[in-house]
Amino acid sequence: MHVTSDSACRTPIRIGYVVNTYPRPSQTFIRREIQALEAAGLSITRFAMRPDPQPLVTPVDKAEFAATEYVLDRGALALGLALLRGVLRHPRAAGAAISAGWRGGKGRGLLRQFIYLAEGAWLARRCRETGIAHLHAHFGTNSTDVARYSRLMGGPGYSMTVHGPEEFDAIGALNLEAKIADACFVVAVSDFGRSQLARWTPAADWPKLQVVHCGIDRQVFAQPRPLPPGPGPGHPLQLVSIGRFVEQKGQMMLLEAMARVRQPMHLRLVGDGPLAPAIRQTIARLGISDRVSLPGWMDEGQVAEALSQAHVMVMPSFAEGLPVALMEAMAAARPCITTYVAGIPELVLDRRTGWLVPAGSADALAAALDEAALSLPERLAEVGAAARERALARHDICDSAARLAQLFRACSEKQPLPAPSPHPVPVLSASA
């Protein structure tokens, strides 16, 4: 991976990445971001509270596991001693934990905050030992609690990436206002996400709210596979939907739509999660087992193969940040059928790079599926090519890493944040 960044030509800086559970197969975008920053010349130390309880399958995830320091592995004694020393030296940090504990809801109370405080105290000491100049947390949840408490206990400044939608559903419980106020900067993954953060940030501090897209590696999508034969006689429309089986992803609505379509098509519903039993029951209840298959969870390579066998990617989400699976499908030159929620309309242009439908409307979703099934193969290929062009222009991991490197350096050197750069938007032909 080649990254063009002025950081590669200057004194390297050490950045600590803080994540609750890492690595996780569902969060490959964090791994890509870290590796792109390292390619740009930054030194990244990975910190996680705990490893993923699920076995790691791919060599790259296993390598990330070996490179990660796990805070809870230090043990209760080490963390307790770090907490005692930290509180004695920085009593304001204890006050912040008490305040957050009173505000938090279930799972966010006082005891939990003091566990985060102990983790932050240990992390502050570790940053001093290793010369880490800045901490960056992914998600505005407990990982950012730990980074914030580390700063309050004498550690370096911090920033965070807020993905949504979970953070936007629990602003008060997560104490997000205080985290934004104390952060050097806050990354949103879409303009919509930035707008939600601006609701909880004084207008004078809006410059610290930065938009940096999650990125994809061009090299992975250098040679997109052609669409399969069809759709047409003897070749039903092939659909794939990729995502965790949870309410916000809208798979249950997609099944309702599959029961209403008029054209021949088949759906591969890739993933797993809490809704898996209900999804199986709904498929049986609706009598669509001949139209829907459930291959289960897939790794990156298997997902790429599933995309290559599909004409169209479907993501009927009810709530989102800006889904990485969507941009990856577009980079693979697949048109997408998805919903008008959160940051999705910033990426998908209706009937130019895919179809946008109202979230929650099974009828509208079924109509879009039928329209795709009736499209000429040349039309689907044209829309897929436009989707690929847009995804690669807006979500190149090299561009995102270069932007983050600028922000990290400004914070570590206590310089003003660089001005936002406009997002590249390719000119699409009228037919696209």
UniProtKB/TrEMBL annotation:
Gene3D superfamilies: Glycogen Phosphorylase B. GO terms for molecular function: glycosyltransferase activity. Keywords: Glycosyltransferase, Transferase. Transmembrane segments: none annotated. It comes from the Bacteria. The keyword Transferase applies. Pfam families: Glyco_trans_1_4. Belongs to the glycosyltransferase group 1 family. Glycosyltransferase 4 subfamily. This is Glycosyltransferase involved in cell wall bisynthesis. It comes from Paracoccus tibetensis.
